[in-house]
């Protein structure tokens, strides 16, 4: 018996061509010369290929002087004599046919109506919806009308030349004359002084009896004049504001008093980080790493503050250090002990070398009645005022991660200082000269201070 023949499965593909009977174009098609660069170039599949191709092709339309709309003025009376009233629109046009009025609608009425006119969209803010609903409610209109309206203050119009720079200076001087009447310039205007604008009785009464602009029940208890303190200028010519991304202290439950006398010591120049964008204005200098130190205990915090206080009569006493009875005479003098806590790295900084009084200044309220008498023998250096101090740099730091490589970790451990022994001294002669130069550059000369007995 013969073996069965193997069967092979094969699909039948039927090609059916559907006809698309379109009328021939009214004009013969125009063949374009397109360079064959292949599909790999991507220009055939780009969205702007057809638009660019249409712009490159010249127009085959010859526009005549009348732009394809011949206007025959022959037969219109008075046109060639200078009377063009015939071709102008009628003063009283005939009314449009009702069937033609939809064609004369403005563009703002075309398309779909706005959702704000028909209803309230879900994207609108809730307070707007509430105010609209309350104001439109017939029940609340009577209540709102019965509410007493606040009395409007008479509006005083300023002088016509209020934009004059001289008037602006006089307005500024008026504020100082109002605060310090005895220092007001009474002589004629000159290069030495300028007379302020005239102070109205209302302004003088508002200064003598200040009121809160929105809270009438709030009373002013005390006021501080804003003054500079040039004697407190550091060697750098300004202060540095350092913001930590997390709590630098060891106790998260309560405030650590040691933070008031903490030491933030810059690392070696070899450990500083280069900013990622050197062209940025904020990256004027390299980003340093800082070692953070705190005292061992909270006990010496008060002595450290007394050591830096210039009004404390015992700030030169070495007993504030709490010296040790060691064989070494230098060690027996004592010092403040600071322990290493962690290393911080700079991730953002802003330097104001030429604008010390920019958008950030340090403000300190000083009341000698609260300070004098806390320590016996304390003298008064400044009057009662709010003193501002220049800021030359704002730095944002965060805890630095430990290096992954063993060699880098070893180098960092070798350069780290575990203990600081800090002693306080007065600036030497060279440092004093530098401080005077920076003080003159910032404040322009000696600043007079008043200390009231």
From TrEMBL:
GO MF entries: chromatin binding; RNA polymerase II complex binding
Protein name: Paf1-domain-containing protein
Broad class of the protein's primary localization: nucleus
Biased composition (Polar residues): 134-143
Region (Disordered): 134-165
InterPro entries per record: RNA_pol_II-assoc_Paf1 (IPR007133)
Location in or out of the cell: Nucleus
């Amino acid at each position: 018996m013969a073996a069965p023949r193997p069967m092979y499965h094969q699909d039948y593909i039927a090609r059916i061509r559907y006809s698309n009977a379109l009328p021939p174009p009214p004009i013969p098609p125009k063949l374009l010369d397109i360079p064959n660069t292949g599909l790999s170039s991507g220009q055939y599949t780009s969205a702007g290929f057809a638009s660019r191709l249409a712009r490159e092709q010249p127009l085959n339309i010859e526009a005549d002087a009348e732009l394809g709309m011949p206007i025959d003025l022959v037969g219109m009376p008075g046109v060639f004599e200078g009377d063009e009233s015939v071709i102008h629109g009628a003063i009283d046009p005939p009314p449009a046919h009702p069937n033609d009025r939809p064609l004369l609608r403005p563009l703002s009425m075309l398309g779909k109506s706005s959702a704000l006119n028909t209803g309230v969209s879900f994207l609108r803010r809730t307070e707007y919806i509430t105010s609209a609903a309350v104001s439109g409610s017939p029940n609340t209109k009577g209540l709102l009308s019965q509410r007493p309206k606040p009395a409007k203050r008479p509006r005083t119009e300023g002088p016509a030349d209020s934009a004059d720079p001289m008037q602006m200076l006089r307005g500024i001087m008026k504020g100082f004359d109002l605060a310090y009447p005895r220092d007001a310039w009474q002589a004629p205007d000159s290069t030495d002084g300028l007379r302020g604008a005239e102070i109205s009785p209302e302004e003088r009464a508002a200064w003598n009896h200040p009121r809160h602009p929105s809270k009438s029940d709030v009373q002013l208890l005390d006021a501080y004049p804003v003054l500079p303190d040039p004697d407190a200028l550091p060697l750098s010519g300004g202060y540095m504001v350092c913001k930590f991304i997390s709590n630098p202290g060891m106790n998260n439950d309560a405030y650590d008093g040691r933070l008031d006398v903490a030491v933030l010591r810059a690392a070696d120049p070899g450990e500083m980080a280069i900013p990622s964008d050197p062209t940025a204005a904020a990256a004027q200098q390299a980003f340093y790493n800082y070692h953070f130190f705190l005292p061992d205990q909270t006990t010496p915090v008060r002595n450290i503050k007394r050591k830096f206080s210039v009004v404390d009569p015992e700030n030169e006493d070495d007993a504030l250090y709490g010296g040790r009875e060691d064989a070494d005479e230098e060690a027996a003098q004592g010092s403040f002990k600071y322990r290493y806590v962690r290393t911080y790295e700079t991730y953002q900084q802003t330097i104001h070398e030429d604008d010390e009084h920019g958008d950030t200044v340090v403000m300190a309220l000083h009341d000698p009645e609260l300070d004098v008498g806390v320590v016996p023998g304390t003298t008064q250096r400044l009057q009662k005022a709010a003193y501002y101090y220049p800021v030359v740099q704002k730095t944002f730091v965060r805890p630095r991660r430990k290096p992954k490589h063993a060699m880098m970790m070893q180098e960092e451990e070798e350069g780290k200082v575990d203990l600081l022994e800090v002693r306080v001294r007065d600036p030497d002669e060279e440092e004093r000269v530098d401080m005077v130069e920076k003080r003159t550059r910032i404040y322009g000369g000696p600043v007079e201070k008043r200390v009231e007995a």
